[in-house]
Task: inverse folding
């Protein structure tokens, strides 16, 4: 079934608007409308019952103008090439906006991992690595976790690549377990970046997070960590939701008590009834919270439901959760959006730190990692805010303009080969 919203078209629409604000010509940035390389692979796997099934996988490298390509791998039944192309392009912009020396890439496999045994999942992962091995490597393209992939899966990727090379290559992938070269602070980094952006937005408005009401859509790693850290900062998390539905309490939800539930990756449907009411995802959008964190999948907020959003501030935890049409509605309604390429960049920032540690065969303390993350995010946020004010544009445009200046500048300096 074709997608209702093509995420790669969404990316190009925003790119064009940002380029126009900067006064760029098509020649300046047209290369960013096409991925450098797109690999589609077939993955035959012997299942536990002896049956052979073939899965489809993708690895897209969008840009290497500023350094090696970087981007996660997601396992989801709805993954397709257009989605992976969009995610790779967003990674190019994300790495540029926080000014780390990477370009963008992304990978995916069309599979519902909940239907596979652990052994089947491991065989699928290792086969995928073997098929994309010609285009990945610590100086070429460095994968990482994304939707439905875990540190354990990253460990399998590192091991498969290393076995083919004949020696340990921890720098081929980030988001690994600590024991095989992962970085302290990496597992919480994306959610921490969301919290930091929420805090910095409030600071720009002369406020603090204390007492601010928050709703979080999506309780995966990003959403659950963001909700917990926002709670720790004094915000009142009044609503959360996942694929099974949501819960709401106007006086705030007990995030300390709920945290172990999500750490075990259990759904809200499995949560016993308590001091809250059950709501659906539409109810979460309209619950009256001041800050909304969409941390599920792309296109969660579209033309059809953007008018229902009651929040005045949105911090995008997911990649591309708001369509361009919805963006216009939200802007007309006075909603301030901190865009994904800034708000959820904490993960790739600490992935960069992990990669640097791997290359140096060194390990940083967690407090140092978190401090470096906050400094990086604050510098990027201040730059985006200033650009948006200068051009009288949204924060999304500010972020894209900041990123475009760096990527286009790098490409001009390098030139076009041959």
Result:
């Amino acid at each position: 079934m074709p997608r209702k919203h093509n995420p790669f078209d969404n990316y190009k629409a925003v790119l064009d608007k940002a380029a126009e604000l900067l006064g760029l010509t098509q020649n300046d940035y047209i290369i960013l409308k096409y991925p450098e390389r797109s690999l589609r692979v077939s993955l035959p796997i012997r299942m536990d019952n002896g049956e052979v099934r073939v899965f489809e996988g993708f690895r897209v490298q969008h840009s290497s103008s500023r350094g090696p390509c970087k981007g996660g791998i997601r396992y989801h039944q709805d993954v397709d090439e257009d989605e992976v192309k969009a995610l790779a392009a967003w990674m190019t912009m994300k790495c540029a906006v926080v000014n780390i020396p990477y370009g963008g890439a992304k990978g995916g496999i069309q599979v519902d991992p909940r239907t596979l045994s652990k052994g089947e999942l491991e065989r699928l992962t290792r086969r995928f690595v073997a098929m994309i091995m010609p285009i990945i490597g610590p100086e070429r393209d460095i994968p990482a976790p994304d939707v439905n992939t875990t540190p354990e899966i990253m460990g399998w990727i590192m091991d498969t690549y290393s076995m083919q090379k004949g020696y340990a290559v921890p720098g081929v992938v980030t988001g690994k377990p600590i024991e095989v070269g992962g970085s302290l602070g990496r597992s919480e980094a994306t959610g921490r970046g969301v919290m930091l952006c929420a805090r910095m937005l409030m600071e720009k408005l002369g406020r603090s997070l204390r007492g601010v009401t928050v709703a979080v859509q999506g309780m995966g790693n990003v959403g659950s960590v963001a909700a917990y850290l926002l709670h720790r900062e004094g915000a009142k998390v009044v609503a959360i939701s996942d694929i099974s539905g949501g819960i709401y309490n106007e006086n705030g939800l007990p995030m300390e008590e709920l945290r172990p539930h999500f750490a075990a990756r259990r759904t809200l449907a499995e949560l016993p009834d308590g001091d809250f009411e059950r709501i659906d995802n539409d109810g979460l959008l309209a619950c009256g919270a001041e800050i909304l964190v969409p941390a599920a999948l792309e296109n969660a907020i579209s033309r059809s439901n953007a008018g229902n959003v009651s929040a005045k501030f949105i911090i995008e935890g997911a990649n591309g959760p708001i369509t361009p049409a919805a963006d216009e509605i939200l802007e007309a309604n006075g909603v301030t959006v901190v865009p994904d390429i800034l708000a959820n960049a904490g993960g790739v920032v600490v992935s960069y730190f992990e990669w640097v540690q791997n290359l140096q065969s060194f390990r940083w303390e967690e407090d140092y990692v978190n401090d470096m993350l906050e400094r990086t995010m604050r510098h990027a946020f201040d730059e985006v805010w200033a650009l948006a004010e200068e051009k009288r544009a949204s924060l999304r445009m500010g972020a894209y303009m900041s990123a475009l200046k760096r990527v286009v500048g790098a490409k001009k300096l390098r030139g076009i080969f041959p």
The radius of gyration is 20 Å. The first helix runs from residue 7 to 22. DSSP finds 14 helices and twelve strands in the chain.
